[in-house]
Amino acid sequence: MGRGARRPELRLPPLEPWAGDGLEPDGDYDGLEFADADLAGQDAAGARFMDCALRGCAVDGTKLRHARVLDTALTGPRGVGTDLSEATLRDVELTDPRLGGTQLHGAVLERVVVRGGKIDYLNLRMARLRDVVFESCVLVEPDFGGARLERVEFVDCALKGADFTGATLKDVDLRGAAPLEIARGLDRLSGAVIGTGQLLDLAPVLAAALGIRVE
């Protein structure tokens, strides 16, 4: 392994409560706290969130395409179908999410930590991840197809049915993933490190992928 992932170091300023009626496309949100806000179905495509805290917010179907989320803490978001495609997340802490079908295809994630919670069917196709840590969380069928991962760590994290088809990995640490279940893209794991026990667990799938018959 090369250098480990750099984690975000958030130091949020004193925050003002968000008092808006709804999010707006291309909106500018700076130094705000969104507490238990119902953001479901709202359109904030192209918006910028900087030095913000979102706590316990509902994000079912929230449209955040091309949004920029910078120096921001997201705690306990819940929802299905949140659209963050082609968004930028930099210096972000995501804690205890309960999300399903989150769209992050084509997104850029840099210095992001996902801690706790569960995300089902996370779409990271063609995304770029650099200095990203998945810690103590459950990822069910995440899709990294065509993505570029550099200095990405999985720490005490369940990785179930992951798809790495066409992905490019550099300094990716999978040793903390338990279980480590890779449905597709085993041939793309060059640039990753796994443990001896994980190699034994993956042996039947690797053998099948290489056309080796084990008797």
Automatic annotation (TrEMBL):
Entry superkingdom: Bacteria
Region of interest called Disordered, as start-end residue ranges on this chain: 1-23
InterPro entries: 5peptide_repeat, Pentapeptide-BTB/POZ_domain
Bias (Basic and acidic residues) ranges: 1-10
Protein name as it appears in the record: Pentapeptide repeat-containing protein
